[in-house]
TrEMBL record, chain A:
InterPro entries: Amidase, Amidase_dom, AS_sf, GatA. The keyword ATP-binding applies. This is GATA amidotransferase. GO terms for molecular function: ATP binding; glutaminyl-tRNA synthase (glutamine-hydrolyzing) activity; transferase activity. GO terms for cellular component: glutamyl-tRNA(Gln) amidotransferase complex; mitochondrion. GO terms for biological process: glutaminyl-tRNAGln biosynthesis via transamidation; mitochondrial translation. Residues 28-489 form the Amidase domain. It comes from Atrichornis clamosus.
Automatic annotation (TrEMBL), chain B:
One of its GO terms (molecular function) is transferase activity. The gene is Gatc. Keywords: Transferase. GO terms for biological process: glutaminyl-tRNAGln biosynthesis via transamidation; mitochondrial translation; regulation of translational fidelity. It comes from Atrichornis clamosus. It comes from the Eukaryota. This is GATC amidotransferase. NCBIfam families: gatC (TIGR00135). Signal peptide: none annotated. Coiled coil: none annotated.
Length: 526, 91
């Protein structure tokens, strides 16, 4: 049975109607994971348990009792979420071999809906980075590096240079999840977003990346980076799918006291046709230094799109935008210093052979377990938290945070419904170029457009918009009001429909000849 | 100003992570320099923000025991243990 029909594949409908079975779907995804191994998107593939879950799902479909839209749908989870019985490494030597004794709440929720967990995806070590290049299992490769679109635009190298050397990065830190969704090995993936870690790789890999409002989705089981900013992120191939996944994950969790207690009602997105009542804000500070002329043009084109459709498009100002990165630098390193203190080798994770004293064992364990990026942030964080520096740096940053958050409040209060900005400064860089600068520099450069939304706790989404001159994806970002995900996603869906972002043309996928993925505008499950 | 040797030693002791080499110290210096940009912002009369959810009441559970008795699971990931204890080197 092939699922070639029409413009939009509806995998869920196909499962319900028996045109494809959960085990078939699972097997095809597992096979595709194997044939795209060079992407290095997965750290652990949970083949046995996935097939078992698929079989159980199949039983339910046979009885006509699927648990919901997600039943039988293959998904992947970033390797900083705890998954019971499956290794959770955070791409660090510190947690190599650590098998979680429990499921993160979001993982449990997916499993309770019948989703099939294919495996854990690759990331920057402990989610620190913007390239998915700094984990101990190596960098993740952007699937678009191998697309016909990119190859067509690549200048052929005359010398016998390694053909492989011009592959581009996925962005990060949720690069593995973005690559997994982009290369069709799963229908949805979980990432995390602290400074842009879901939206950035979504933009570079041409997929939808949603950062929900802080407090909407439980962080229980997500190994924390910055407790006051972390959120689980959702990566899918279309906006409707993101809404479906959001619907299954959002809501109060007694195990995470930072989740709000308001009732959350899952929603279906309306097909917006009339945007005349919409007010779109264009924050001028997001025309940041280094923004490529290509993306600037695209952003402008998008603004015009809304204008021509009747929406009110206004320039707005978020004056403290440029301090967001500095503020993040201080608050992030401070919270990291605290959060990484739990890794001492005693209860779990790597333990050094050093036995002279508890303190020397701790120090050696941490030196051996953490990479330079992590150690650097711990040291910086501790510096900013020293008694003599506390007011000057940490408290100062907290004050600047309020100013940043207030900027957004003022703009939304002035009648603007949603903000439209670029997501990244440029399309994905070649790996060899990216690693020329160190992690902190790159993060500071790449997070500039995404970070402020984390400061303010606001929902934001990357929508793939167009291909760059190099044949690589470029996305644009929408930022919405707190807890107004329905409005945010509705507008994003309208925009997605207008831009008709092209589907990636991957040799490996065609070769698999699983009609599941061919000839579809977006292989979605909703 | 450069970070003093005493502060560096103090940091290593607090963080239980070492600088390894001069590169590590360089990195810290750059991080401090970067952070110093914060002082360009006027924050007179501005309250520090701990959480974006500051206007809400944090959820508090009832003081009832709802889970536990998972000693076995908790000990499973530890390298060195004796009976129900995690073992640390003396001193």
């Amino acid at each position: 049975t092939r699922l070639k029909e029409g413009l939009r594949s509806q995998v869920s409908a196909a499962l319900k109607e028996g045109r494809v079975t959960p085990t078939e779907l699972c097997q095809r995804c597992l096979a595709l994971i194997k044939s795209t191994k060079f992407l290095n998107a997965y750290i652990t593939v949970a083949e046995e348990t996935a097939l078992k879950q698929a079989e159980e799902s199949e039983e339910r479909y046979k009885k006509g009792q699927p648990l919901g839209v997600l039943d039988g749908i293959p998904v992947a989870v970033k390797d900083n979420f705890n998954t019971a019985g499956i290794e959770t490494t955070c791409a660090s030597n510190m947690l190599r071999g650590y098998v979680s004794p429990y499921n993160a709440t979001v993982v449990q929720k997916l499993l309770d809906q019948g989703a099939v967990l294919l495996g854990k995806t690759n990331l920057d070590e402990f989610a620190m980075g913007s390239g998915s290049t700094d984990g101990v299992f190596g960098p993740v490769r952007n699937p678009w590096s191998y697309s016909r679109q990119y190859k067509e635009k690549s200048v052929p190298k005359p010398h016998s240079e390694d053909k492989e050397s011009n592959w581009v990065i996925t962005g990060g830190s949720s690069g593995g999840s973005a690559a997994a969704v982009s290369s069709f090995t799963c229908f949805a993936a979980l990432g995390s977003d602290t400074g842009g870690s879901t939206r950035n790789p979504a933009a570079h890999c041409g997929v939808v990346g949603l950062k929900p409002t802080y407090g909407l989705i439980s962080r229980h089981g997500l190994i924390p980076l910055v407790n006051s900013m972390d959120v689980p992120g959702i990566l899918t191939r279309c906006v409707d799918d993101a809404a479906v996944v959001l619907g299954s994950l959002a809501g109060h969790d007694p195990k995470d006291s930072t989740t709000i207690q308001d009732d959350f009602k899952p929603f279906e997105l309306p097909n917006l046709t009339d945007v005349s009542k919409l007010s779109v804000g264009i924050p001028k500070e997001y025309h940041a230094p280094g923004l490529s002329s290509e993306i600037l043009a695209l952003w402008s084109k998008a603004a015009d799109l809304f204008k021509n459709a009747g929406a009110k498009v206004v320039e707005v100002s978020l004056p403290h935008t440029r301090y967001s990165i500095v503020c993040y630098h201080v608050l992030c390193t401070a919270e990291v210093a605290s959060n990484m203190a739990r890794f001492d080798g005693l209860e779990y994770g790597h333990r050094s052979g050093m036995n002279e004293s508890t303190e020397s064992m701790y120090a050696a364990t941490r030196r051996e377990g953490f990479n330079e990026v992590v150690r650097g942030r711990i040291l910086s964080g501790n510096y900013f938290l020293l008694k003599q520096n506390y007011e000057k740096y940490f408290v100062k940053a907290q004050k600047v945070r309020r100013l940043i958050a207030n900027d957004f409040v003022k703009v939304f209060r002035s009648g603007v419904d949603i903000l439209l900005t670029p997501t990244t400064l440029s399309d994905a860089a070649p790996y060899l170029e990216f690693i020329q600068e160190d992690n902190r520099t790159r993060s500071a450069q790449d997070d500039i457009l995404t970070q402020a939304a984390n400061m303010a706790g606001l929902p934001a989404i990357n929508v793939p918009t167009a291909l760059s001159e190099r044949g690589l994806p470029v996305g644009l970002q929408f930022i919405g009001r707190s807890f107004q995900e329905k409005q945010l996603l509705t507008v994003a869906k309208w925009f997605e429909k207008q831009v008709q972002f092209p589907m990636i043309q991957l040799e490996e996928v065609k070769r698999q000849d699983n009609g599941v993925f061919q000839h579809q505008k977006s292989a979605s499950f909703s | 100003q450069k970070v003093s040797v005493e502060v560096l030693a103090h940091l290593e002791h607090l963080a239980l992570v070492d600088f390894r080499d001069s590169e590590g110290v360089e990195r810290l210096q750059k991080a401090i320099q970067f952070a110093d940009q914060l002082h360009e912002v006027n924050t007179d009369g501005v309250e520090p923000m701990d959480s974006v959810l500051e206007d809400r009441c944090l959820y508090l559970r009832e003081d009832d025991v709802t889970e536990g008795n998972c000693t076995k699971e908790l000990l499973e990931n530890a390298r060195e243990k004796v009976e129900e204890y995690f073992v640390a080197p003396p001193g």
